[in-house]
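Exercise (ungraded).
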Amino acid sequence: MVQGIWWTFVLAVVGAAGRVVVPITVQQTVDTGIMADGGPDAGRITTLVLLSAALLLVAGWCMSLVNIRLIRATEAGLADLRVRAFRHVHDLSTLTQGTERRGGLVSRVTSDVDTISLFVQRGGIILLVSTLQIVVATVLMAVYSWQLTLVVWAVFVPLFFGLRPAQKRVNLAYTAVRARTGALLGAISESVVGAETIRAYGAQARTGRRVDAAIEATRSAMVRSQKLVAIVFSSGVLVANLVVAVVVVVGTYLGVAGDITTGQLLAFLFLVQIFTGPVQQATEILNELQNAVAGWRRVIAILETPVQVVDAGDDAVPSRRGPASVRLEGVRFSYPGGPEVLHGIDLDLPARTRVAVVGRTGSGKTTIAKLVTRLMDPDDGAVRLDGVDLRDVSAAHLRERVVLVPQEGFLFDGTLRENMAYGLADHVPAEDEAELVGRAVAELGLDDWVSGLPRGLDSDVGQRGEALSAGERQLVALARAYLARADLLVLDEATSAVDPATEVRIARALDSLTAGRSTITIAHRLSTAEAADLVVVVDDGHVVEVGAHRELLGLDGVYARMHAAWLAQSR
Amino acid sequence: MPEAAPGLQGPPRSTFRARTGYGLSGSRTRRSVQVMVRGIRSEPGVYALAIGASAVFGAVTVGVSKAIGAVTDQVVVPAIAGDPDAQGRIWLAGLVLAAVSITLAASVAARRVWAGMGVSNLQAGHRASVTRQYLRLPVSWHRAHPTGQLLATASADVEAATGVFNPLPFALGVVVMIVVAAVMLLAIDPWIAAAALVVIPLAIAANLVFQRYMAPAATRAQQLRGSVADVAHESFEAAVLVKSLGTEAREERRFAARTDDLRRANVDVGVVRAVFDPVIELLPSLGTLLVLGVGAGRVSAGAIGTGDVVTAAYLLTVMAVPVRAFGWVLGELPRADVGYERVARVLDAEGSLRPGTGTFGDAGSRHESRRESGQSDGQPDGQPDGQGRQGRQGLAVRLDGVGVDVRAHGTDVTLLDGIDLEIPPGSVVAVVGATGAGKTTLVSLLARLGDPTRGVVRLDGVDARDLAPEAITGAVAFVSQTTFVFEDTVRGNVLLDDHDERGATDDENAARDQAAWDALAAARVDDVVRALPGGLDAPLGERGSNLSGGQRQRLAIARALVRAPRLLVLDDATSAVDPAVERDVLSGLGERTAQPPTVVMVAYRMSSVALADVVVHLEGGRVVDVGSHAELLARDAGYRDLATAYEREATRREEDA
């Protein structure tokens, strides 16, 4: 690897050397060819011109190689960076994901990395070659006149020092542009994702004004950053040209004093051009570099965000597959910046039990489901799977054993079959997939529904599954979770949008299919509770009643009242 | 009626449109020219300044070589030779050169400021037009286009389409530079001029070849950037699922595969660049060598002096970098074409829903009277205004022979067929049917989120297709199965207007807030909002992440109720709401107003169904039966099966036990 870098560097030096071929040839041709004693020396001129043409070709060829090598290396690195940042976003808890707009997260693995990639393609190599050229030019200038070389550097050094604070401001300006672009994407994504609601309420004008405000904020940030860049770059131009004026004045005085000849001064002026060209280019590229660095920082910031729900990994307590028992001990939880929603929950859910959790909306039912599946960790207390704290169970193992079916299951743009097979373990061969999916559909009693679809299991579900109704999406999510064959299935109102006949059919199918396994169902329809082995009643963040359906009815408490209301409404 | 909702009136900032639309036509060169010309035309003032500054830069750059030559001849050489007059002019020479430097730097700064402003304005204009389209095009269009792709069009594609405008003013200034240089060189010697200028067509030819190779590579890279964004967007949306199934590794592989495609495409672009960059850079250098060769011959022929050869060589050296600006422009053009085409595809997209212009006879009078009394303040229709609740009768709905087909994989699939329904004003209708029976398709027609393939949907006797969009949104409130929550306050989400942004008086604000609270109370979600820090001002996270599913649904109902709709469509909008709450909300509708709205709801709960005057039983896209709950129970076996599912299940269980 190091060898590779050195080889690239050597090629770059040769390539950069190509830049001084022309000035040297001009000087040599004029001095020793055209002005040769006894008139122009045609032979020498031809030799010089052909020789330098050959050198130029070699140098150009080297530059090509350097470019290709650099692009290959950086693109490989950037692809890796992209994937690592992407993975890290997934590893962050769902809470963390709630703090930033998803559009913003997407931009970190897309446009932010693209900025770096484009910088490398366009500017990176120029920066490297320019630096080399500056060194070569300095050496050559010193050969002609060390005094004038000092003068040149004396003029440029303040520029270098002035550039630092200026670039800090440029950097801030670019960061602002990127941040506002992220906010802009968030605003635009609302206009796309919320298309139906916006149309149903005629909220186009309002949404349009918001997007316009975000667009204008981005535009003004861009204009501001470009003004700064223009000032920085043009001060480079100013210095590069002023240096010629200074060299002329100082050089002429040196000439008058006899320290330098006219020929040397003119040659020196030529060399100053070789020096200032790359300095100017470098200042411009440095500005683009700031932009790339801003993108880089945002990607790195993602990678440096600590994962809150940490995988136990190698320290994991080993546990075996099989019917799972769950215990919650003094579990307290609050969402970031919000009030406590669970106030010390104690629950013992034995293995092979069908548990129904009921309660009013907002009572904390879904939070319990998220904690049992470790989408987040409790603030206080512990959730134990077969007696082991979930924080000590490896993530891979936990996902094999415990599967959550959320209320609004996400569907990928693809076919019904692909979406159902998503829950299958990775090692399941593709040819078995079709059979397993087909069997699951039959076992869950979804045959009729699937055969009524335009292309059966090969029907496309559309973006986010929007070609299906909410109830149909839930059926797919259910089949998907069922295929995962977990020891503990947590259903969070997973059939809330399905018609009663289908729901009853699925519930019955799941009952027999998950016999001997454990299920926790967050239910809003009490038909589920009627069929459960154990009913847990949650109210305002507390568990108020636990027991079998009939026992709880006998208590004549919260559950009995809920059930009476349910009966009145469902029949 | 206003022609369009406020904020959507008038052309967007940049009108890039040709008579035939936004799309480009003709050969690649022609299309590229179109992109550049349209851009400059849309920001004429800014580009006049940018190009003007650039022209000054081009002329002064050539002038520098002239100034240095003059200073050398008249000051440097005689001064060093001992001429005291010349020695006295040393500082003057320095000042002249300094003045030229300042002019040069100022022209560079001016060019860059205006060029940067031009690009920023163009991007803002494109983005505004693209989002206008997103907001204008119907839901069906949105379903057919991936979110990630639409976001990429508004970001990466817009950037690609405008990237060429960064070097463009510079390149146009270089044209001036070449002209001035050509005049100077011709004044020296035609042969020298020919030798120096032969490079320029060569450089342009090299750039054209470059462009031919670059175009496909750049297109592919740009497309892949969009598809990487697609995967990332979809995957992050699916975050909860991914976590709950533990499929992070699978998602990583999926993303890595797409990323690797992009990496390869980027390398391809880089390789093309790597091969052509040195070639394009080589040409001015080879030109200088040619000038030396030819110049030597001319000097020996006695036609010119040695100094003329040096001047010509020096000019080429000075021009080497600026001439590359053509390369930058040509290099950006393929990307610009691709980006522009993708932007144009959105701008030229035609929605299948052509907006009508009609109004409801009586209902329209509300707007007319407001207008006549000079109160038309551009407020979007359907906003609460405190007086909308009176005198607004429920809407009469009538469907005649309605059918809906969708095209999937080249075959038409019938979702609805032969639907005839008559819903009198103020009645409550429940649409009942198995999952997938076509209920959502049916009710979404009532809010004109789509049009029927066959038949007519009439609202108050008017074909929905003839009604202006504002007429429909002003009368119909549609609450969908999944609630979309804007990243805004509770108030903003309920009222869907720009609170405090239009200089409303305190009284107006208080009335507005009261309307919001009333609606929240009617949706039985006021207690939840009161408990949030800030109440109505409480910010709701992205997609309402800090509310439960049931709370989000009730918020959506409040959003509908605050508009005092004449037709309320609930598409299973209470699935996550407690039954008791749902009953309260539905029975409360009639109490809120003297003339209750017409309600059409998709429902499963028998309690909700029992509240309905009429039940429509839908199966396989057709109406099986229409009647009261009791009537259908008695005569419709399929309905009975749905309605008594829980009861029979409970009985079965009891028998089992």
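Further reading is listed at the end of the chapter. For now, observe: Chain B has a mean pLDDT of 81. Residues 248-300 of chain B form the longest helix (53 residues).
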